[in-house]
Amino acid sequence: MYQTLCQALIAVILALGAEFLYAQQSPVALPNPINGPGSTLSLAPRAALPHSPPLPYGLELLSRFDLLPYLRDSRCVQDSSYDRNFYNADFGHFLRVEGHTAVLADIRGPGCIYRFWSANAAGHLRIYFDGAATPTIDCAMQDFFLGKVPPFLQPLVGHKSGGWYCYFPMPFQKHCLITVTDPGPMYYHVEYQLYPDSTRIATFSPQLHQKELAALGEVLEQWGHLGLDPKPSVVEEQAQDVQTECVPGQPLTLANLSGAGEIDALHIRLDPANRYTLRQTVLRIYWDGATRPAVEAPVGDFFGAGFGKETFAALPDAMNDQGGFCYWPMPFTKSARIELINYGQRSVNVLFQMRYHRLGQPLKDAGYFHARWHRQINKEGENFHILEVQGRGLYVGEHTAMQGDRGIWFLEGNEEIWVDGESFPSIIGTGTEDFYTAGWYFDEGPFNEAFHGCILKDEAHSRVDAYRYQITDCVPFQKSIRVDIQHGPIDNYPGSDYACVAYWYQTAPDDNWSPLDPTQLTPTHWHAQDAIEAESLRWTSGDPQVIDDMNLPVLASGGAVVELHGGTAACVLPVAKEGDYILSLVQPPLAGTARLGQNWAVDDPKQVGPAPTEAIRADETNSVHQTLHLTAGDHTLFFQIPTGQTLYLDYLTLRRLLHPNSIPATDLKVVEATDGEAQIQDMTGFGPYWDNNQQLWFTGHRQGAQMTVELPVEKTGSYELSVYYTTARDYAIVQVLLDGNPIGQPTDCYTPNVQAKDQTILGNVMLTAGVHRLTFRAVGKNPASTNYLIGVDAIGLKPLP
Q1: Domain ranges of the chain
Q2: What per-residue confidence (pLDDT) applies to 460?
Q3: In the prediction, which pLDDT does 691 show?
Q4: Fold match, 2-223 / 662-799
Q5: Which of 145, 150, 114, 107 is nearest to 129 (CA)?
Q6: Is pLDDT above 60 for 268?
Q7: How far apart are CA 723 and CA 746, in angstroms?
Q8: Distance of alpha carbon 739 from the chain centroid
Q9: Coiled-coil region(s) at which residues (predicted)?
Q10: pLDDT of 658 above 60
Q11: Residue 17 has pLDDT above 50, yes or no
Q12: Which of 240, 409, 598, 703 is the most buried (most CB within 10 A)?
């Protein structure tokens, strides 16, 4: 069925290609590029290197996943809109601007564009090849990405979760110029291979020749069946099938092959398969008698699932209920040994299946497959390190599980790739989700494509799991490579917990990158922002039990909860400094367990009220709050749990109030975010001017973008309603709506630097008890502002007489 569709689509290309108005090419003088780094790097002479076998390019290379291990003498570079001043304003920066037309790339050939991306495609796209006076591609930019311009077919082009992308190769012999008229504040990447000057390349034409059509059909077939082996079938392929038990602490050999060969596919299923076993059971592969493994990674992470059992399918790998599958080609010269070691406390059952074939002669000029797991608790000012190795090879991608504790704004970080000791990265990006070929914090949620995807986005627990496989846009290196990514816009999300697996090929059968530390093999625990973990408190009564969330159906902050049974309980709450606070107690969503309501008090057990009769629901994280004036020193929390019931407490937060009669905006529930993402942002680096050093941050990216929060009102009455905004150079003009009706005047939140704005009074209102809605709408922006962001510190709600 899918093959028939592919044939029909190719027929459409043949029928329509001649009817589209593509220009005939004629040589003209090439304009001088200004900066790149990609376009600038293309100006340097490029020599062919020995031991670089001739390989196809363009669609033919895209269709041949089996050729991935071969060494290359090409150079992968990128033009992008990264902020040349490194202030995180990674949009609207072009090689140059000529009137209303921006130049995105200006490349000396020979080369081939393998990835073209934007977060906000707009305007009119023109692509010129080999010095043509008129463009070969001339269309609305969004039409190009939506597959409306032959031969650019979906899914090689498309729009997913905020990212407009194209993987359809565009080769050129002499030159490529990409322009967009009226682009607006565009985010973009143009990634391409630069070939040695002696390479002969057939320049892109929309009228594909027969080999290209055949290759396109192969690619469409492969991408239409993700999760299956995309490589050509092999004659005399052999299989190995093992079912066994992996006991703790003892290496388990699964396969031991001798002679030259190539592993075609691996399948591993663990039972039980959970976030503990998938992280604590480690896969190791040794090539050609090496004493150090070339592959060393937890089973779950190796197959692309860093937070436990997840489901997705990409071109090189997949995970589903049957386990993990991978199809990376893995050649070896003398031998291959595969083993598992269980660093957990319990045995796991293992199903292992492998397909491989023998080679009469070892592959010439090919690298060994490497995959290494690396975990890092990020530090202020230091990048997360994906890979750093010496030698010759090619980097082909990575998968990273990212855990924060105060929202997912760690995604503001850019990737940086340095090759062969260069002083400035030849690839530098515009944001983490942009690196993963999406956009706007993955605004449409998880998805999976052949080369990129987001398999988990959990904003409630500040975690993201994503992959990017660089197959045709692999990064060859002759001496060394370093692949980094920032956490936050300027590496300013310390404490974030990243764990990745980098995949690459290298001429050496082993490497010294990030040897595995068994003490790091604990599952990534979520920590609620500013949490005081219930299990860390000193309990003075109530016989509390600490329950590891390994034994629970839900995630707990810090990995554990406190279990309390019917009766009274008490714990000590230390307070460092006298002041006004909001104390919040948070319970996990464990259905049928006792709920906190009025049945708790601070310092005075006589203030403990009756317990609610309604139990907690499975879809509910119950939280209760009190606004208090607390002196420095120890205070006591008292609880009353109904007889025969069990109450679970996850964590507490104690947030100091800077603004009287106010509610921290970060405590409000966001119920809508349109044309942007709502996040909690740490403001520590900007001074002590925000409640609890944080704000509610909305990353609106166009006029009309808005977020809506729930505003709880305890008592019916008249109130003075106000807002404490943040202002900055990329913030919007904001109009507030109360229950759908505008209140107050629009507020211009632009300032050249980040500031906490004084109270903005919206007006006096009559509010009924219950939940109301506040909407913050970007109705415009100051001419000096560069975007439509909104920051809210607190909502003032002052009772009136």
Answers
A1: 2-223, 238-520, 532-656, 662-799
A2: 85
A3: 85
A4: yes
A5: 107
A6: yes
A7: 12
A8: 34
A9: none
A10: yes
A11: no
A12: 409
Could you tell me the CATH superfamily of domain 662-799? Galactose-binding domain-like (2.60.120.260)
- State both tokens at 197: 């000057």
List of residues 6+ apart from 253 with CB closer than 8 A: 337, 338, 339
3-state SS, residue 519: helix
Instruction: Please give the structure tokens belonging to residue 14.
Output: 């043949």
CB of 299 closer than 8 Å to CB of 340: yes
Cα–Cα distance for residue pair 797/801, rounded to 1 Å: 13
Return mean pLDDT, the chain.
Answer: 92
Can you give the pLDDT at residue 18? 34
Nearest residue to 282 via CA among 294, 296, 270, 293: 296
Q: In Å, how far from its chain's centre is CA 734?
A: 29
Contacts for 50 with CB less than 8 Å, ≥ 6 apart: none
In a 3-state reduction of DSSP, which class is residue 218?
A: helix
What is the token pair recorded at 120? 């906000």
Burial of residue 486, with CB atoms counted within 10 A of its CB: 0-12 exposed, 13-18 middle, 19 or more buried: buried
CATH number of 2-223: 2.60.120.1390
Give the orientation angle of helix 210-223 with respect to helix 2-17, to 10 degrees. Answer: 140
Reply yes or no on whether the pLDDT at 383 is more than 60: yes
Tell me, rounded to whole angstroms, the distance of Cα 755 from its chain centroid: 29
Residues 734-761 have pLDDT tens digits of 999 999 999 999 999 998 888 999 999 9
Q: Helices in 503-650 by DSSP H: which ranges?
A: none
Backbone angle region of 436, left / alpha / beta, with phi > 0 → left and psi within -120 to 50 → alpha:
alpha
Kindly report which listed range (27-36, 166-175, 336-345, 768-777) carries the lowest average pLDDT score: 27-36
Q: Which of 346-355, 469-478, 522-531, 645-654 has the lowest mean pLDDT?
A: 522-531
Element (H, E) at 11: helix 2-17
pLDDT surpasses 70 at 7 = no
Under DSSP, is residue 5 helix (H, G, I), strand (E, B) or coil? Answer: helix
- Per-residue pLDDT, averaged over 151-178, amounts to 98
Determine the Cα–Cα distance for residues 787 and 789; give it in Å rounded to an integer: 6
Instruction: Say how many Å lie between the first and final Cα of the chain, rounded.
Output: 73
The total of other beta-carbon atoms located within 10 Å of residue 563's CB is 19
Percent of the chain scoring above 70 in pLDDT: 96
CA 743/CA 765 separation, integer angstroms: 9
Q: Determine the Cα–Cα distance for residues 104 and 179; give it in Å rounded to an integer.
A: 6
Q: Do residues 781 and 732 lie in contact, with contact meaning Cβ atoms separated by under 8 Å?
A: yes
Q: For residue 434, how many C-alpha atoms fall within 13 Å in the half-sphere facing its CB?
A: 31
In angstroms, the CA 50 to CA 73 distance is 8
Yes or no: say if 242 and 316 are a contact pair by the CB < 8 Å rule: no
Q: CA of 90: how far to CAs of 40, 582, 762, in Å?
A: 19, 37, 34
CA–CA gap between residue 366 and residue 72 (Å, rounded): 9
Q: Which CATH number fits domain 532-656: 3.40.50.620, 2.60.120.260, 3.30.300.20, 3.20.20.150?
A: 2.60.120.260
Q: Tokens for 275? A: 């976030």
Q: How far apart are CA 412 and CA 694, in angstroms?
A: 16
Q: Give me the pLDDT at residue 36, please.
A: 57
CATH code of the region 238-520: 2.60.120.1390
Give per-residue pLDDT as tens, 574-615.
Answer: 999 998 888 999 999 999 999 999 999 999 999 999 999 999
Distance, in Å, from the CA atom of 325 to the CA atom of 318, rounded to the nearest integer, reads 5
Question: Cis omega before residue 110 (within 30°)?
Answer: yes
83, 74, 72: which is closest to 786 by C-alpha?
83
- Lowest mean pLDDT segment, chosen from 235-244, 514-523, 677-686: 677-686
The tens digit of pLDDT for each residue in 283-323 reads 999 999 999 999 999 999 999 999 988 899 999 999 999 99
Tokens 């808005």 belong to residue: 706
